[in-house]
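Minutes, project check-in
Item: structure for the 181-residue chain
Input as provided by the requester:
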Amino acid sequence: MDPAKLAQQIGEEKLPPVDSWNPPFCGDMDMVIKRDGTWMYMGSPIGRKKLVKLFSTVIRKDDDEYFLVTPVEKVRITVEDAPFVAVLMEVSNDNDEQALVFTDNVGNQFIAGEEHPIRVEIDPDTKEPSPYVLVRKNLWALIHRPVFYQMVEMADVIQKENKEWLVISSQGQSFELGTTE
């Protein structure tokens, strides 16, 4: 499928304008998004996927804190790592341009590129990579380990700064996944 048409189709999904809402802060809610993408309320997983999907449309990050926002209230929640997890990646090729199409744990789809960059943080102690892709304005998805392995298998190796780097591209953008060390 043509990546441009695919991007247009994916971009047609409308989200509430949470960034334009400025309701009063109403306090903390006992809601946690775990590192594995599980949404918890009062210590129990939220089992209704439609409810999680609804909450995911009204999440916002202000500074280093996460909030669920409606036109009339704003409540703080806890996010252990990232509010989303990229659980699937498909590759679309057209006219020699590769597009990496991600799907996250609540069904959002987006194509890695200028608007949805990929970044990898390396733990300084364990050297363990934590890869992320931007879902929307300062809300990232942790890339699930099998998806990251898929990316590593597809990556090109380039020489930079006397090291071999793994690089993957999508929509004409290149993203470093880390060194081969």
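Outcome recorded: Residues 3 and 9 are 10 Å apart (CA to CA).
No further action items on this chain.
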